[in-house]
Prior knowledge:
heterodimer, A: 111 residues, mainly beta, six-stranded mixed β-sheet, B: mainly beta, seven-stranded mixed β-sheet, four-stranded antiparallel β-sheet
Amino acid sequence: xxxxxxxxxxxxxxxxxxxxxxxxxxxxxxxxxxxxxxxxxxxxxxxxxxxxxxxxxxxxxxxxxxxxxxxxxxxxxxxxxxxxxxxxxxxxxxxxxxxxxxxxxxxxxxx
Amino acid sequence: xxxxxxxxxxxxxxxxxxxxxxxxxxxxxxxxxxxxxxxxxxxxxxxxxxxxxxxxxxxxxxxxxxxxxxxxxxxxxxxxxxxxxxxxxxxxxxxxxxxxxxxxxxxxxxxxx
Lengths: 111, 113
């Protein structure tokens, strides 16, 4: 059974710092991995999707990597800003085409 | 292109009642998935519909049901509401049912009193 774990559960850093969020999964048989952002009480915004054949994807200050063999993905945020404060979730699409979710990392960027 | 829309955005019901939530996918998307999000359990998959057929179902009781119409719009229904059904219900659409990127709506916040 696929399990997704995100570490840390919460992170607070000063504005301007570069940071890394971690996501690990137990079964390497995935179709893709997505990183999402969720603001309090709101829906989910897709940030990056990495296909299983890819190693990384970039969008602006965000870079996500995928190491399928080791079951790990990282989301790198460069030059963090207070507007980046949110909960970040990763999810893998498993062999049944279902999204399996991590519990999220709550990120606070201090001005 | 309009995004995924969900109605209503907020609902308050009492135990024992039933509720119907609606989701309109992005134009051209034929797959709709539903998720429940609670502080204790996080995000959990409810079910997925593609071309009016349920393709996958999560581990939820039969009180939770859904359907999809020919225009790809989807509804989910929860009967005999329980306090534990209070949650944010999220709908996501994708082009098809083969693991493509999913795009989420703003959710419906259901409170059961």
